[in-house]
Amino acid sequence: MVKRPMRLAALCWLGLGVVPVAVADALTDEALALLNGAQGRAAYALLEPRESERAGEVGYDFLLGLAALEIGENTRAVFALERVLALEPNHIRARAEIARAYLALGEVETARQEFENVQRQGVPADVSLTLERYIALARRRESGDTASVNGYVEAQVGYDSNVNAGPNRSSITFPSGFSIPLPADIKANEDGFGQLGAGANARLPLHTGIALLAGLSGSYRGNFEKAQFDLGSVDGNLGLVFSAGKNVVTVMGQGGQVTVDGARYRNVVGLTGQWQYNLDARNQLSVFGQYAELNYLTNRARDVDRYLGGASYAYLWRDGAVGFASAYLVQEKPEARNLKQYEFDGYGARLGGRLGFGQQLIAFGSLSYERRDHSRNQANEVRRQDDQYGALIGVNYALARDWTLTPQLALTYNKSNLELNDYHREVVSLAIRREF
To answer: What is the distance between the alpha carbons of residues 96 and 111, in angstroms, rounded to a whole number?
Structure first.
């Protein structure tokens, strides 16, 4: 056995035991250290040249299979892990890893069977929960050749310190020094709220690697006292997804409507596209773009065309934690060319992630920033500039199968050089969600 149990325990993906190595040596020790340091490519480069002479050693083959899986060499991972299982059929960790390799190769039925074999061998409860998620994923992929539908319903209660995103002041002062009081519905209004939402998504395979996607969702948020700011929304999308190897391309048409106090406020129609590239089992890159036409039904002078484009990166750690980062450029152009005050160019970024604690709890959070530089209007007024900061933190608690309880806190601070657009907002909420 390897002589570094603490390092091995840190390496275990499912906590299914340590890596047996017939004779600990410099090669396997170094490879193990590299894997433990999330350097899968370096570990594979170290191990692969020695395969012809060391194939058949359980410890060596397991480390080679793990390194190959880390960098997306899934076929090589299967070959190495099969050698492990040929010598030690009850090697639970190797069976779990080969199931992951089969899943990555698209052999979903075999992957599901292997995950179920591991689960039947009496693993700890938290490991069993992780296996159930992989089994569910395999089953979803198994049904990829048939139509599928899934959805959710959600109820939420909370408190919002600024339901109308108004300035947190009672008056504004002009450059001349003259001040005027703000009407009650313009300045920030705080209130409690309740919200109901539901949605459904459908997938219809059309051909190998091509599927039709459709979705519909809606929500209604009623404030306890400030009913004039009650919000409703309905959104729909229809598009295609193309999958080939490590590439996934999605093109979607979208439409939606927002209501305020029961009256139609804004319509949106647009088109989005995304190219996702899976570098390996743990790294993912995406490039995305969006065009949307925003029509304000109560003030058509505000109608704008919105353009957005950017890129994102996501990483999956060995313990299941996920981190992501994205950056983008954004622009809005008014349809009425003489209303330059509604035109802006901007850019933004977002960081976030999630981390599991035990069997039922997943913590999540994100930070965001967006800069918007508005154009001057014909009156040559002060050019508006906004810096908007955001933070979100919360947890998903699994009450039971398909039931989730989510408390969260969202913070927004819009720093503007114009007092009327300078505000902060804090929203705390508790949601219960049922997925089906």
So the answer is: 9
Task: Tell me how crowded residue 216 is: count the other CB atoms within 10 A of its CB.
Answer: 15
Clarify whether residues 281 and 404 are in a common domain.
Answer: yes
Q: How far is CA 307 from CA 6, 225, 245, 326, 333, in A?
A: 51, 36, 30, 16, 9
Task: Looking at the structure, tell me whether residues 165 and 308 fall in a common domain.
Answer: yes
Among the candidates 119, 144, 169, a domain finishes at: 144
Q: How far apart are alpha carbons 401 and 102 in whole angstroms? A: 26
Residue 5's closest CA among 32, 26, 25?
A: 32
* pLDDT tens digits for range 300-352: 888 999 999 999 999 877 566 889 999 999 999 998 766 666 789 999 999 99
DSSP state of 182: P
Quick count: other Cβ atoms within 10 Å of Cβ 187?
19
What does the pLDDT look like over 349-408, one tens digit per residue?
999 999 988 668 899 999 999 999 988 755 556 788 999 999 999 999 989 878 999 999
Rounded to an integer, what distance in angstroms lies between the CA atom of residue 111 and that of residue 100? 7
CA distance 59 to 80: 10
Crossing angle between the packed helical segments 58-70 and 74-87, to the nearest 10 degrees: 160
Tell me how far apart the alpha carbons of residues 267 and 295 are, in angstroms, rounded to a whole number.
Answer: 5
Strand pairing of 179-181 and 304-316? Answer: unpaired
In this structure, the number of other CB atoms found within 10 A of the CB of residue 414 comes to: 19
Domains contained in the chain, number: 2
Residues 77, 42 share a domain: yes
Residue type, 58: V
- Domain residues for the domain of 63 are 5-144
Residue 176 and residue 239 in one domain: yes
End residue of a domain, out of 127, 144, 161: 144
Interval 266-290 mean pLDDT = 90
Whether 208 and 312 map to the same domain: the answer is yes
For the purposes of burial, counting CB atoms within 10 Å of the CB of 169, is it exposed (0-12), middle (13-18) or buried (19 or more)? middle
d(Cα 392, Cα 407) in Å, to the nearest integer? Answer: 11
